Amino acid sequence: MSEGKNKNIEMITGDPKKAIIRLALPMMLSMLLIMLYNIADSIWVAGLGADALAAIGFITPLFMVLIGLGNGIGAGANSLIARYIGADNREQANNAGLHGIMLSVIISVIFTILIEGFMVPILQFMGAGDTIQYAMDYSYIIFGFLFIFVYSGVASAIFRSEGDMRRATIAIAVTAILNIILDPIFIYILDLGIAGAAWATVISATGSCIVMSYWIWGKKDLYLDLSPSNFSYSNKMVIDTLQVAIPSTLENVVFSALAIIINSMLVMAAGTTAVAVYTASMRIVQLAMIPLIGLGTALLTVSGVAYGAHNHENLKTGHSYAIKLGFAISILLGAIMFIFSGQIAAVFSYTSASAALAPEIATAISVLSLFVLAIPHGMMSSMMFQGVGKGIYSFIITILRSLILESVFAYIFCFIFGWGLQGIYAGVVFGCFVGGTVGYIWAKLFIRKFTQISIRKYSPQKE
After folding, report:
1. pLDDT per residue over 246-284, tens digit each?
2. φ, ψ at 20 (rounded to 5°)
3. Which of 65, 272, 303, 437 has the most CB atoms in a 10 Å sphere around its CB?
4. Which of 228, 183, 232 is nearest to 204 (CA)?
């Protein structure tokens, strides 16, 4: 057991290139599993009719923001724990993990009370209309057990922070497999309808929480020791965690705001059909982004460890290597999207009602294949900043890239240059690239300054 623990710590404190590969691959698998069970969930709920599926659609954005909150706390805890591991301060690393769990409890309770108390007006504001009863049946259960989902994100991040991706992936696999099995049983066999889908989701997530809790407090074979006796409340630790958690959570809000802005431009340019075309195309882009998000999550841990250890070489190498690998993957995936755009479009236009969309979707995919190439340097720079605890820097890059530049260039190219829909697609790509480039330059300047400080302060001590 101790050998396994030491191997994980040696891995994340050693060669950053090897660490990024070993951390990223399981993360990619985890994300594919999450996507798989979300698709399965939609398929089973679709059998209940359009209203039930629409109800899930109304709940999902709010649910994803709150899940993002859990992942944000997880990112904050991951960054802080990794920095303490890099500094070889196990006691503070233990305390950082316990603070992450404490924050997951407090924030879950607050948001559960708020959302459960104001559920009806929230759903009415979101336009649930005729589907409101379905939405209430589903949401009261899901949000009533919000702690399960937030805690799951934080616990998974604790495993990632010490390089234990195997168990972080197993926990997600437990959730995915259980959900796929339980969905038809609760929805149709037990005849619980949409409430059955909610219970299946809660129970499957609880399963993974039980497994992770057993490893943490039952088996106790982590590098970290999260025994309650190791908890010592610290305002600084709460602030350090939230400095990454809050900006990380707000980034989800930025992406939602960007989607609203781009959708409104699409409607102005070519009507609601354009939104359907763009939505279908961006689903493919999101699929292609899974490897990049996996790399970014791995870089977060590696950067945190390097920063905590004052190891400027590992920070510089990890950042550069993740970007190079990201571009290599993006070139491959972008080429596949471009070459097979027609065949991919056919997947979304298999009925007579949607057949006419095929050429438009193919065109959108062809242009947006470049979006995948525009992402790596900006995304990796943002994740590096999260890793070193500068969450606000990451948030600023996201606002500049997504909310400002992508929407501004989309407007200019479409309405001022008169390029139409292709102008919106091109503006999104160009804005992403320019914003990412600013983030990349900022990250390089930060690493250069960190290098100078590390050499000046720590090299003489080592000599």
Report:
1. 998 888 788 878 888 998 899 899 888 888 788 778 888
2. -65, -45
3. 303
4. 183
Query: pLDDT tens-digit profile of 28-81?
Result: 888 888 777 777 777 787 778 767 777 777 777 777 777 788 889 999 999 999
Burial 300-336 (b: 16+ CB within 10 A, else e): bbbbbbbbbbbbbebbbbbbbbbbebbbebbeebbee
Alpha-carbon span 224 to 74, nearest angstrom: 15
Alpha helices in 309-375 (DSSP H): 312-339, 341-347, 358-374
Question: CB within 8 A of 270, min separation 6: which ones?
Answer: 420, 421
Tokens 């790509």, located at residue:
429
Q: What is the pTM of this model?
A: 0.87
Phi, psi of 231, rounded to the nearest 5 degrees: -85, 130
pLDDT digits 0-9 by tens, 342-351? 998 887 666 6
Burial of 452 (0-12, 13-18, 19+ CB in 10 A): exposed
Taking the chain, what is the end-to-end CA distance rounded to the nearest angstrom? 35
Sign of CA dihedral 100, 101, 104, 106: negative
Residues in the chain: 463
Q: For the chain, what is the mean pLDDT?
A: 89
> For residue 54, what pLDDT is reported?
75
